[in-house]
Amino acid sequence: MGFLLTTLIFVAIGIIASICVRICCNKGPSANLFHLTLVITATVCCWLMWAIVYLAQMNPLIVPILSESE
Amino acid sequence: MGETLPTMDLMRSEPMQLARIIIPIESAHRTISYLGDLGLFQFKDLNSGKSPFQRTFATQIKRCGEMARKLRFFRVQMAKAGLLVLARSAYGSEISLDELEVKLGELETELIEMNANTEKLQRAYNELLEYKLVLQKAGDFFHHAQSSATAQQREYEEHRLVEGSMDSPLLLEQEMTTDISKQVKLGYVSGLVPREKSMAFERILFRTTRGNVFLKQNVVEEPVMDPVQGDKVEKNVFVVFYSGERAKNKVLKICDAFGANRYPFTDDIGKRHQMINEVSGKLSELKTTIDVGTLHWSSVVQTIANQFEQWTNLVKKEKSIYHTLNTLSFDVTKKCLVAEGWCPVFATTQIQKALQRATVDSNSQIGAIFEVLHTKESPPTYFRTNKFTSAFQEIVDAYGVAKYQEANPGLFTIVTFPFLFAVMFGDWGHGICLFLATLFLILREKKYSSQKLGDIMEMAFGGRYVILMMSIFSIYTGFIYNEFFSVPFELFGRSAYACRDPSCGDATTIGMIKVRDTYPFGVDPMWHGTRSELPFLNSLKMKMSILLGVAQMNLGILLSYFNAKFFQNDINIWYQFIPQMIFLNSLFGYLSLLIIVKWCTGSQADLYHIMIYMFLSPTDDLGENQLFWGQKYLQILLLLLALVAVPWMLIPKPLILKKQHEERHRGQAYAPLYSLDENIESDLDYKSHDEHEEFEFSEVLVHQLIHTIEFVLGSVSNTASYLRLWALSLAHSELSSVFYEKVLLLAWGFDNVIILVIGIIVFIFATVGVLLVMETLSAFLHALRLHWVEFQNKFYEGDGYKFSPFSFALTSDEDED
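Output (C-alpha cells, whole complex):
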C-alpha cells in the first residue's frame, strides 16, 4: 500500500473525525477547539505508532528464522 | 504580537475574581441558601481570628448539633426496629427549622418514655416468670419431702405404739420435753441461681455455715430471661434451709453476692396453687400490655423513618448555612453582613440573579451589593469538567493542582495517557475484554452513581471513562502488534516473508526472505514463534519508545513556551525555552533522526557507536557508520549547539532578573498615597507587593542552577525512562504467549475433554488474574509515572489550590456515614 498512501488515509480519517465531532457536539468555539485538539492528538498518536512499525519493517536487517518444531 | 491565541476548554483555569457581597441581615440566611444551591462561590473566612465559640451564629450551630444528635438517636431506634432509611424520599411538606426542632424534641421524649416503660414492664414480666418457676419447682421438693416425711413419721409412730407400753414412762417424758424444746425455728429461702455458679454457691454456703444448712437444687430445663441482665441464662431452682438468725443473714448475703434472685414461698399447698394462678394471670396481662406498647413504638418509628432522610438533609443544610454565615463579618455600623470570596467570572450574572431572588423572597427593602475587588492574591484554580473529563483531571490533580491559569496537562492526558497505556498493553483480545467490562459499568451508570459502592468498586467506577479510552487504544495497538491472546492473524494482506526455495529447507537456519511489499498494517504475522522474533521486536519496541518519548518531551517543552507567552514572560522564552529545545533536540532529536534514517535506508550502522563516539571523538571519520552525507559535520555542529545551550540556560536569566529588580526599585523611591476607603484590600496589596520586593541574587542563581542541572541530566534519564514502554510491552506479550502455549495448547494436545476443560478454566483464570488485572494496574501505574514525571517536569508547576465552592451537593456527598 505504500507509506505515503496510508499516511494520506490517516490524514483523511483525521479530517473526517474532526468534522463528525464538530457536527455532533457543537458547543461554542472554546469547546470546539478542545474537541479538535483531542481528535488531532489521537490521530497523530495512532499514525506515529503505525508509521514506526511500518518503517521498521521496510528494510529489515534480520529475517524470520523458523524454530525447529515447525 | 497583537493577537492572542483563541481560548480552549480545559487548557487554562477559568478566570476567577475576588468579589465582595454586602447582604442586609434579613435576607442573609436566604441569600446563603440560594448561593449554596448555585454552588459557584467560595467564601473566605473573614473571622479566622475568632474561636468557634466567639462566632455570631454559634448558638444556631449548637441547635443544629442537638438536632443531629436526636436524629442519630432515631437512627439507632430504626436500626433496632430493623427498618431501613428510605433513600431520598422527596415527598413531604416544607418544614422550617424551628418547627423541626420542636417536633424532634417531642418525638425524642416520647420514644425515651416508651423505651423506659417497656423496659420496666419487661423486667416485671421476667421476675414473675421466675417466681412462677420457683413456685412450681420448689413445690415439688416440699411435696416430695413431705410425703417421705409423713411416711417416716407413720413408721415411727407405729414403731412407738408397738413399743410404747414396754418403755419406762420417764424416758417418754424426756423425749417429749426434748421434742418441744428442740422445736427450733427452721427458716428457708427459695429462689433461682445461675447454673454456672450453682456449685460455687453450694460450696460457699456449706463453708460459711459450717454445714448447718440444707440446700436442695433443681434444674430448670430452658434458659430463663434474667430480669436484671436482660438476657437468657441457664438457672437452677434452689431452696436453702437454715436455723437461726445469723445463718439467715449469711445466706441472704451469699444469695445477693451470687446474683441469685429470691422469691417468697409458702409450704401450704392451697396457697401455692392460688399464687400460681394469680401469677399466671398477671403474666398474660403484662404480655398484652407489652405487645401493645411495642406496636405503638414501631408505628412511631415507622413515621420517623418515612421522613428521616428529609429531616437529616434539612439539618445538614442548615448547619452548613450557619457555618458559612459564621465566616461573614458583621458590619455593625451598616447593619449588614459582608462576604468575601472567589467566584468564576462567567458566574457573575448567575450570582447576581440569585442575590436578587433572595432579596425578593425575603421581602427585604435593600438589595444585596455585589462588587469585584482587585487583588494580587493568587486565585484558586477551576476547570469546568464533565463526567468524561473529570476523571482525567483528577489524575493530574493527584500530583498537584495547576497554578492559576497555567497550561493544564490534563488536556493532553485525555489522549496520551490511554495511548501510552495501550503501547504497554497491546493485545486486541485483552482490549476487547476490558472494553466489555467497562461498557457494563457505563451502561449501569445511573444505577451505580446513586448507590454506595465498596472502595475498589468505587475507584473502578470513577475511572470508567479512563478505562474505556484505555481499552479502545489497546484494541488499536493490539492490531498493530498483531496479538490476539498472543496469536497473530493475517488480517491486512499477505505476509511479506516467504521461503527462499519451495522446499523451505533452510527456513530454520538462514530464514525467510522478504518477497512482497511490507505488511501494510502492523507487525508481520510471520514473526510469531520464530527464533529471531525477540531480537526484531526488541529493536522495534526500544526504538519506538525513544521516538514516542522524545515526541512527548518536546510537547512538554512546547507547553512551557505557551505558558511563557501567556504570562508574557519573555525571559522564559529566550533564555529557557529555546536553549531547552536546542539541547534536547540536538542530542535526542538527532538520535530519533538517526533511527528513522537507518530504517529508511536499511543501513547496518551501529547507532550506539555513532552516539557514543559523537561525544568521545567527534572529529573521527565515521566509516561504515555513515548514514548520510555530511553526517560528521552535522554531528560536530549539534555537539557545539548542545554545549552552548547549557550556559545559555544557566547564566542570562538570573542576571536579567537582577537588572529588572534594580530598575523597579529605582522607580519606587516615592511611596504612593493611599485613598481612605477600600482600606482592606489596599493593605493586602501593599503586603504582597512588599513580598515581591525581596530579591536574593544568590537564591535565584542557585535556583536556576538546579533547574539547569535537572534539565540536562534529566534529558538523558527521562529518555531512558521511556524504555519502560518496551519493557512492559515485552512482559505482556511473553506472559500472554506462555499462557496460550503452555496451558491452552498443552491441554488441547492431550485429546481429553476433561483436561481440555480444566485447561480452559486455568487459562481463563490466569488471563483475568494476571493479564487483565495485574498488568492493567501495572501499565496504568507506569503510564501515570511517565506523565507525572517525564512529561510534566518540562513545564508544570502545580502549586495552586483547587476551587472548592460552598455547595449543598458537595457537602451532602462528604457527610455520608
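Chain A is about 75% helix and 0% strand.
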